[in-house]
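Figure 3 (text version): structure tokens given as input.
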């Protein structure tokens, strides 16, 4: 579920894709635009993402019977970086295009609508701290299926630290909390170290590489979350800045998570992504 991952997209901006979440990557985190981009525009990023699978923390959220079920994702999003304050506000959504669409909507896994706010500030020239708050909403879910009073709602506050050296090293800690009693027992603390590096290629191309590891701790119910406790993700994206404001980013990702209890023969997934967007 959720804004799964963020990967650097655009010409001096950040956009979102699943990943939820494309992978924040601090997990799920949007960052402010560069000072130069902010000075030139209003700080708004509009992005449209497409993915062959909706992968969040190693799990294909749109699966029906297997991790490799090819149920595709359409993910529009908008982020406003508020001047040079370090504050960003945004919306992101996940639409399943094929497969068990109705079942996932009823179960609170489809037609996801996310709202988020992030704040980032520098401690030194190379170290930055961030605070995040995500709200994952499923307004079209069937209460008889989810057993919740009203639409299922998840809240995920978190904090991150990033050290930019030869590579970008990060650590994000969040708490995924189910608001209603029926989903509260699935709440957990999530720890995710990340590693990333961006390369400027021949203008107007750039290459972004990212790797992440995730671990769910302090599970409210060990019985409920015996699977998908660990996850590993690797992503590579090539951004083409067609103009100063318009970009296209094809990307590929690999993910793994433990799924012994579910009896899946496959615990890994390889998926493709494509983002197009504008920085205003």
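Below: residues designed for each position.
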């Amino acid at each position: 579920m959720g804004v799964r991952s963020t990967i650097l997209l655009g010409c001096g901006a950040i956009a979102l894709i699943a990943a939820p979440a494309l992978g924040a990557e601090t997990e799920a985190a949007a960052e402010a635009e560069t000072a130069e981009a902010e000075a030139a525009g209003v700080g708004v990023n509009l992005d449209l993402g497409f993915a062959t699978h909706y992968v969040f923390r190693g799990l294909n959220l749109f699966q029906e019977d297997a991790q490799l079920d090819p149920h595709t994702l359409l993910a529009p999003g908008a982020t406003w970086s508020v001047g040079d304050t370090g504050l960003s506000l945004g919306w992101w959504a996940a639409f399943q295009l094929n497969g068990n669409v109705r079942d996932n909507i009823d179960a609170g896994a489809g037609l996801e609508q996310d709202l988020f706010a992030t704040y980032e500030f520098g401690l030194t020239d190379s170290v930055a701290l961030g605070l995040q708050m995500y709200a994952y909403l499923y307004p079209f879910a069937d209460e008889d299926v989810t057993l919740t009073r009203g639409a299922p709602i998840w809240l995920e506050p978190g904090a991150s630290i990033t050290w930019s050296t030869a590579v970008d090293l990060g650590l994000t800690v969040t708490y995924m909390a189910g608001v209603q009693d029926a989903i509260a027992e699935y709440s957990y603390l999530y720890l995710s170290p990340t590693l990333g590096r961006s390369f400027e290629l021949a203008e107007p191309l750039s290459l972004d590489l990212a790797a992440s590891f995730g671990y769910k701790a302090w599970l409210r119910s060990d019985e409920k979350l015996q699977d998908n406790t660990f996850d590993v993700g690797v992503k590579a994206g090539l951004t083409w800045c067609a103009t100063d404001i318009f970009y296209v980013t094809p990307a590929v990702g690999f993910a793994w998570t433990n799924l012994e209890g579910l009896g899946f023969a496959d615990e890994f997934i390889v998926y493709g992504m494509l983002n197009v967007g504008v920085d205003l």
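Residues 5-279 form a domain with the Porin fold (CATH 2.40.160.40).
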